[in-house]
Predict the 3D structure of the following.
Amino acid sequence: MSLKKLTDTMLPAIESELQRQVARLDEPHTLPFHEMLTYHMGWTGNGAGSDATGKRIRPLLVLLTTAACETGWLHAVSAAAAVELVHNFSLVHDDIQDNSEKRRGRKTVWTIWGMPMGINVGDALFVMSNQAIMDLIEHYPAETVVKAATVLHNTCLDLTRGQFLDMSYETRNDLGVENYWPMIAGKTAALLSACCHIGAILGGVDESKQDAYRSFGHAVGLAFQVQDDILGIWGDESITGKSAASDLLEGKKSLPVLHGLSKGGKFAERWAKGPIQSDEVEDLAQVLASEGSYEYTHGMSRQMTTLALDSLREADPQGEAGEALMELANKLINREQ
Amino acid sequence: MSLKKLTDTMLPAIESELQRQVARLDEPHTLPFHEMLTYHMGWTGNGAGSDATGKRIRPLLVLLTTAACETGWLHAVSAAAAVELVHNFSLVHDDIQDNSEKRRGRKTVWTIWGMPMGINVGDALFVMSNQAIMDLIEHYPAETVVKAATVLHNTCLDLTRGQFLDMSYETRNDLGVENYWPMIAGKTAALLSACCHIGAILGGVDESKQDAYRSFGHAVGLAFQVQDDILGIWGDESITGKSAASDLLEGKKSLPVLHGLSKGGKFAERWAKGPIQSDEVEDLAQVLASEGSYEYTHGMSRQMTTLALDSLREADPQGEAGEALMELANKLINREQ
């Protein structure tokens, strides 16, 4: 209940701040460029609307954390925009790198305007994230701005690390579960961790509390990704909306797959023979489960969830925002889709 | 003489700071990623060495400006690294966008490691520029760091604007000389302007002096680009090392070309008929000159040069660094290659 109530007031503020940041390109010379960004953000073009914008989880995490530190969240809204712009910059470049033609049911930027423009759109969103975090100077001391920006920049390097690992894993056959964590630490956990860390910095709590919020975000990110990996192989198609075994078809080296490969059993044997076909995914998912990979992955998900909840308890979030933060964490971790 | 003397002490400091920044990826998990960056920076791989690193003009401009404000330049070295990292990020992405296979005589990053990795290398260099500018906090008050970073970020958005215009001009046939300036303001002048502006901020001079340094850098950038356009059509091949009329062959919408097109004479007539062939470039360059485009472009170059020197006089740079700054400006503007 707290989450819905707070979300209803925070989301419009986030959206309007994002629009204000992106409007830096809303000038006569660069109107078509501006349009590429507003399209990607889900505001304009075919299929624009709330399905196209995404859920804005990351900026919500920033604002809920700031509020849970018993400070006003309104001044933190440019930091919230900054993390969402980082997320979207990485999506635009990801789509090019993965050759993905669709995102949230719509054509990707590069598909419409070409790869060179797509790279430039990602770059512009990245620049705007830097500008947005600097805008904190309107409301916070310069020392605080430098701290928040440093966290954001370090996180962005983690994103490139995760992206590098993800791309390099595609062609590697010597991987075990130990290779999984550094990749998703960069690709998924780093930015969620930064959201809570930055929120806590702006909330003015001491360093030990900042650390606790940071660990909370990190663990939520890991738990979220592990859960995503489970759904990608054993999810209920009618709920997730995508083929349950699509990760197997795509050859994605998710945690269950890496676990299965390390077992060297029937799953590993089949995997080594080349791409999985759609008529065998259902059976293969069962083989993988029978070799203990479902059990193992679920156990990891539980561990990360415990870690997240322990960290949140240590952070000791206050009031309605604290409750909302707990609700959001549960939603992210225990989701079925 | 002052330039050579100062350059000899500044360049090693710049190079070692750049290596320190890039070493953030020098970790077991990301060694091949680190190697992609050190290759691009000119330190490792085939053809590594001073020909491969480029001249480091931009970081030199930062340090010379700081020193010309009568403050020590050593503490400004991370800002110098930041502008060079921005420059290199844009080169890596440019090479992908332009489909360029060679840079400074070596294979480009994407040619060796593929387009997806190439995008990620550019992104990482960009992140490191942000981290480098934040490192100023070790030596400057947080307010100064925020000011310098804000200038850098605004400049990066200008770069994406210039890149957008450049790419969109490729397919446009309605362009005149008035379309030239906003493009090169973003692509070339913005970063040179930022170098001098940031140098002046770190040099602690008042805002009117900061403005003068900023204008100086901007005008040097414009003059440099206009000069580059002249050399690209009427340059002496034996000096520039590239075919003098290569800009005509490539169909580049440089200032002389835009001027020629606006005249609607023989040059414009030929241009409208499709790509220029190598056996006609020499004649066509003469046609363009006879229609007044050489005269016009040279006049613009002189105007920008005057603007640059007036601004520098207003900035009133001091001592040996002041002399060196004047020398560097003359070198950039009056070069033959």
Q: What stands out?
A: The CA atoms of residues 11 and 60 of chain B lie 7 Å apart. DSSP finds 17 helices and two strands in chain B. The first strand of chain B starts at residue 102 and ends at 103. Chain B has a mean pLDDT of 94.
